[in-house]
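Hi R.,

As promised on Friday, here is the backbone we talked about, encoded as structure tokens. Could you run it through your design pipeline when you get a chance and send me back a sequence?
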């Protein structure tokens, strides 16, 4: 894509000024008057093999470690805020941003002034919902932005994030996540824009446009899907070509062909048996040839070697690198400097053709020239200070958080609450923690939900808080290193003596003997050590365990069987078999201050093993008592607000969709008091609620609402803002319904179960309001069009309530009769409008070939003649108006 006009103009002006000062003729690649293609060609021709390699290698890093040699340059670095740890939140955002910009400038100066060809780096970072660094504003998480159903608002948010990012000298973000959230058990649903390709493509487009317009390269990810069966992160996918093109490609294609994204990140998983990082059909075929993508493709962190250690499709890392670049990967993204060596070997040995290397390097250099880095490699630190943590950005964060909140239940008009209420019980850790979600910085100044509530009420109002049982109820903890000792070389040392055998019988001399500080192992990809097969070994740990002052009642193992645990030479746990994973505890009476001999034996015959030595010392308060304290506070209060949250995130997929820990028990216990109860859900995905939903008065889902989220939640609770967020994902009644998304294709028979309906708990697009809205006067003009024609769909929407508020008008389409099965309903348009009480507005959508086309039997994009059902409503199941459009 071409650089934005304002950026090109500034580059040309800077180039002209540089020419005026230049005492001798410029090398062609240094001449801004030449076309970018000519400059790229000249520079590539001057580069050594090592210089080319380093332009294809990106890592988190800096110049702080003198052992890291960047003499040949590097593609780019992810640069921390300061050298010795990041500044505390007490430091002003402007000062943090200035220091960060100065640090990036200093590192950039090294590459511009101290390397042979003076090739600038691309400083990169994460910015899913705000630059993930101190001093930057944290907006609501991506799934919350999708819940606004407001592209203009999301575009303003993206513009604010881009301005903070670019001002520091960061010229690439590893965002947005445009994967389709098909299965809401996936821990990364929070980073996405939901389950619908049309909605995800629209939100991704405005995000990309804002950043690319500010001169920051975006990296839509993860191409092509990053969630597989069971909602598991990076699980293999084997989707058909039709499914890929209909469901998973659209957000990426939109980001590339419409919004101008200049980078794409591949997924960790395999696609039809080939790792996505080295999948020629996806990278060279679809992305580069079919879509005409001219930017560069990067791997996910450390994913290129995944073909060797995960997918088992390559014998070694150099071979994996060779086949990845041949397939269309351009840049190898690793997690540390030291990891470059096996990849450099593929270059050094000549395993990768020079034409392949030059093509990848050319793509990287083209973007660096387009960004103007050769003419303007530095930023003004004062500009960074003036652009970060602005009051207007914090105000925008609050606006976005309010717009994202979804009202799911409101019996008897419980909400909004009266600000004259005299006593409120606020329960739960999410009331005070102000969690921001995955890929977040600390924010500029976070406001908790409890703070937001207190700010709404008179000082005389009693707002009291109880933590409740929390989001997780850990019954045991890992035995800490300080409690374990053993004998080594005749003296007692911290930790246990570990003996590792290259068989599963603990026989023969151990291959490895070492001291392990504690037993907390996760050998997912590798074995315990060199010389030990990853799927065939046994281990024995011996030493002493000291009991803490609080004593120990239970001790045991959490992990894969088989294992045996001995205390004082007595076998207390015998699980010497291979079956599953779990926690096995034994009741013991270990007196405070006592010491006991310990021996733990373990064997593994398949690989991917975990092993933890656990006990119940220091577990904390009794959750039953915490619930009782919360119930007691509720009884003393006029109304109770329970904040209930999820535990999720990258590589933290959920098997259960109910609230974790004992939060559901807490809700039901408080509901039993008969006092008004409002549940505030905090999290980035769907939650099952069937056991308690009908027992509470009101429920709102606030997602991860950003650093201004506490005030936004209070605005909704007390009626200063009328909620209008809509669900970008379907909420099931139970996990057994999954995957469950609204735009499925017709079934061959039915979609119910013998013990449950196939319907959702809350459908895609659902959300309540403090107002009511009436739809009328559907018009489809013209009612008949040609396959390349366009039609306008209009209707009248009126606010029939007593409060002003927003309504999200949703347009859905169904192809009545097609040559291949089509979705039962598909989102093709949406508008968020504001109406005062009694006010009405005409809402119009336009339908054209891009909305009505489909893939025929030969996977050709066509608009087939026939009838299309046109549906307008307030959710995917709440259709208010219906008509028909005919294609002749």
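Update: got your reply. Pasting your designed sequence below so it's all in one thread:
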């Amino acid at each position: 894509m071409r650089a934005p006009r304002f950026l090109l103009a500034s580059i040309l002006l800077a180039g002209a000024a540089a020419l005026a000062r230049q005492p001798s003729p410029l090398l062609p690649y240094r001449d801004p008057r030449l076309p970018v293609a000519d400059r790229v060609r000249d520079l590539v021709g001057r580069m050594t093999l090592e210089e080319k390699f380093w332009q294809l290698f990106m890592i988190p890093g800096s110049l702080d470690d003198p052992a890291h040699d960047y003499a040949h340059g590097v593609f780019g670095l992810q640069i921390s805020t300061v050298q010795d740890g990041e500044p505390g939140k007490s430091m002003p955002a402007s000062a943090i941003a200035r220091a960060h910009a100065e640090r990036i400038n200093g590192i950039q100066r090294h590459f511009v002034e101290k390397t042979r060809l003076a090739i600038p780096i691309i400083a990169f970072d994460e910015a899913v919902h705000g630059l993930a660094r101190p001093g930057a504003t944290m907006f609501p998480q991506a799934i919350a932005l999708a819940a606004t159903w407001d592209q203009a608002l999301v575009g303003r948010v993206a513009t604010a994030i881009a301005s903070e990012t670019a001002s520091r000298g960061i010229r690439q973000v590893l965002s947005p996540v445009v994967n389709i959230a098909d299965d809401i058990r996936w821990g990364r649903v929070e980073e996405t824009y939901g389950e619908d390709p049309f909605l995800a493509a629209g939100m991704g487009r405005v995000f990309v446009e804002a950043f690319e317009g500010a001169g920051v390269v975006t990296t839509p990810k993860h191409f092509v899907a990053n969630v597989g069966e069971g909602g598991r992160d990076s699980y293999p996918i084997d989707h058909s070509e039709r499914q890929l093109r209909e469901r998973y490609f659209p957000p990426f294609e939109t980001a590339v062909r419409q919004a101008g994204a200049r980078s794409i990140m591949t997924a960790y998983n395999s696609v039809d048996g080939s790792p996505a990082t080295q999948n020629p059909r996806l990278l060279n075929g679809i992305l580069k040839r079919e879509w005409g993508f001219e930017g560069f493709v990067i791997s996910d962190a450390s994913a290129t070697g995944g073909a060797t250690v995960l997918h088992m499709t390559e014998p070694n890392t150099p071979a994996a690198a060779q086949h990845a670049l041949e397939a269309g990967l351009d840049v190898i993204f690793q997690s540390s400097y030291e990891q470059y060596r096996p990849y450099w070997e593929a270059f050094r040995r000549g395993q990768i053709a020079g034409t392949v290397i030059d093509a990848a390097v050319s793509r990287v250099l083209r973007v660096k020239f387009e960004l103007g880095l050769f003419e303007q490699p530095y930023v003004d630190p004062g500009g960074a200070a003036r652009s970060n943590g602005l009051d207007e950005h914090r105000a925008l964060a609050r606006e976005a958080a309010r717009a994202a909140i979804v009202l799911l239940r409101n019996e008897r008009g419980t909400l909004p609450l009266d600000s004259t209420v005299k006593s409120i019980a606020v329960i739960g850790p999410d009331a005070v923690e102000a969690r921001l979600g995955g890929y977040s910085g600390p924010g500029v100044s976070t406001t908790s939900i409890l703070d937001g509530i207190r700010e709404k009420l008179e000082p005389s109002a009693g707002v009291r808080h109880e933590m409740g049982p929390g989001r997780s109820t850990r019954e045991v903890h890992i035995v800490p290193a300080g409690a374990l000792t053993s004998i080594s070389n005749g003296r007692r040392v911290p930790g246990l003596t570990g003996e590792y055998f290259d068989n599963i019988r603990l026989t023969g001399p151990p291959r490895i003997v070492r001291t392990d500080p504690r037993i907390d192992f996760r050998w997912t990809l590798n074995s315990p050590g060199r010389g030990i097969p990853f799927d065939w070994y046994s281990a024995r740990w011996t030493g002493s365990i000291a009991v803490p002052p609080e004593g120990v009642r239970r001790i045991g193992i959490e992990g894969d069987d088989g294992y045996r645990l001995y205390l004082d030479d007595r076998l207390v746990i015998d699980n010497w078999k291979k079956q599953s994973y779990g926690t096995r505890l034994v009741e013991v009476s270990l007196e405070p201050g006592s010491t006991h001999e310990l021996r733990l034996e373990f064997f593994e015959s398949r690989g991917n093993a975990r092993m933890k030595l656990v006990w119940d010392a220091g577990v904390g308060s009794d959750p039953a008592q915490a619930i009782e304290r919360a119930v007691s506070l509720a009884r003393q209060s006029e109304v109770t607000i329970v904040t209930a949250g999820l535990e999720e995130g990258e590589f933290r997929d959920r098997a259960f969709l109910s609230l974790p820990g004992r939060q559901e028990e807490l809700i039901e216990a408080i509901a039993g008091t008969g006092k008004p109860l409002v549940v505030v859900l905090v999290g980035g995905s769907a939650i099952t609620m069937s056991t308690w939903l009908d027992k509470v008065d009101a429920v709102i889902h606030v997602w991860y609402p950003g650093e201004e989220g506490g005030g936004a939640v209070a605005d909704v609770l007390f009626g200063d803002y009328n909620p209008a967020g809509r669900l970008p994902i379907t909420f099931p009644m139970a996990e057994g319904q999954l995957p469950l998304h609204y735009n499925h294709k017709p079934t061959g028979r039915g979609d119910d179960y013998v013990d449950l309906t196939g319907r959702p708990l809350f459908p895609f697009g659902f959300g309540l309001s403090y107002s009511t809205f009436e739809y009328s006067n559907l018009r489809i003009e013209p009612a008949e069009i040609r396959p390349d024609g366009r039609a306008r769909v209009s209707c009248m929407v009126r606010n029939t309530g007593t409060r002003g508020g927003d309504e999200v008008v949703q347009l859905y389409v169904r192809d009545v009769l097609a040559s291949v099965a089509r979705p039962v309903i598909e989102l093709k348009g949406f508008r968020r409008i504001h109406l005062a009480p009694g006010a009405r507005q005409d809402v119009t959508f336009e339908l054209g070939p891009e909305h009505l086309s489909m893939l025929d039997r030969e996977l050709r994009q066509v608009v087939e003649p026939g009838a299309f059902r046109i549906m307008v409503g307030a959710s995917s199941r709440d259709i208010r108006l219906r008509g028909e459009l005919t294609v002749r």
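One thing I noticed while checking it: Residues 233 and 651 are 6 Å apart (CA to CA).

Thanks again,
M.
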